[in-house]
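Subject: two folds for Thursday's group meeting

Dear M.,

Sorry for the delay on this. The cluster queue was jammed most of the week, so I only got both jobs back this morning. I'm pasting them in the order they finished. Each block is the input sequence followed by the predicted structure tokens. Could you check whether the formatting survives your parser before we put anything on slides? The first protein is the one we discussed after the seminar.
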Amino acid sequence: MVKYCIKRILIALLILFGFSVLLYFIVRLMPIDFLEDKVLGNTSIADPEAELERLKKLYGMSDSSFIGILKSYWDWLTKFVQGDMGTSWISGNPVQEDIFRNMGISFAISFVSLILQLLISIPLGIKCACNQYGKLDYTATVLTMIGISFPSFFFGSLMIKFFAVDLGWFPSSGLVDATLPPSTGGFERALDMLHHLVLPMFVLVILSIGSMMRYTRTNTLEVLTADYIRTARAKGLSENKVVYKHVFRNTMIPLVTTLAGILPGLFGGSMITETVFDLPGIGNLAYQRVLSGDIPFVMGYNMFIATLTVIGVLLTDLMYGIVDPRVKLGK
């Protein structure tokens, strides 16, 4: 087990290193130059060219040759492994500070949406599999396929048009009502925030339950035809006991593979949904910083997501040994 973990960690570090190299060179090719726009467009600076050169040297952008880029990459990587993601060009704050300050709202939305997704999609998938080709199966399949087919920006805009604009039931954007007095109590403010988050969470749940429901249904159908399920029924076990004790547990084994994407999804934010509803989450912030050409933030954010993804894959591999004792992790 220890040998396996060390091996997987070393592979994960190698993957992160390769990703950082590709990411750095791609980001350096971004067509937006925020430094030039900031300095050359500022009439209060006496010598814009000298100030621009100073900032480029400060951020390792002065030498655009291959050797210069390699040197600036190495300087960035050295700081990154020490926990320094650099300083944002937009806010002037450390990148990690901007990420963690805006991550809370994204985590709250993603976490609640994930719980609702699991509570709906897994029982629904098992129920559809146990009633294959029935009315519930056909209805759920059609609705989930429609949900999967909708782009998130289109479905989000549709919900805003119907529930916010036409019916006026929910706010169309933001996290807190702008007319709310600053002296409003914490409980009332929390209710107002929850009111603003209903539509974004609804969009995330509807668009995500389809794939997991179909995956659960397919896995359950495979398990239902297994020999040990026939044996359990032949022994006279009730259908509920067969399904929820034997079928359910073995259906969860393939679903463990989906855990790899949960970790970056929880902490990385939902970029499109947060942008459509103008939420102050990490996803919306990352989108705005990409448009502005904030290279330090783009590098830090993407490496943060990559690290979470690699950790999620590692945890998935370890979870296999827990949910399925037949999986050996010693090799």
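Second protein, same layout:
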Amino acid sequence: MTTTERTRILLVDDDEDFLFQHRIQLENAGFEVAAASSRTEAEQAIASFTPDLAILDLMMEHHDDGFVLSHHLKRRFSNLPVIMVTAVTSETGLVFDPASPEERRWVGADALLAKPIRFEQLKREIDRLLAAASAARRE
């Protein structure tokens, strides 16, 4: 990327506060952000916005929207790093932690973070996944 090109992040969450807060923080960190509050909005956004990384809420309007969107994005952009964020544990008490490679493949995400998320934690995952994607492109 040239110095004028910024890393592009697709941020999708139906929680408007989460979306606003993390969009501002990502933009302040130098990223170009396309924010969407639903799977439908995200699918419309990628018609004109090719992300370098996606951050997706797991449960939106439909409980499986994050899964569906992740699989759609991975089909369209095979090497796209995806971070899935979820409040499923805090909302239901169920621990959702895909540990095996097969479980992670089924989820369709490269990282899974439990809400609430500190920006430093999110930024660390973004940096890790972008570095891994960059190294894979060089190989």
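Two things I noticed about the second structure. The mean pLDDT is 84. The longest helix spans residues 119-138.

Cheers,
T.
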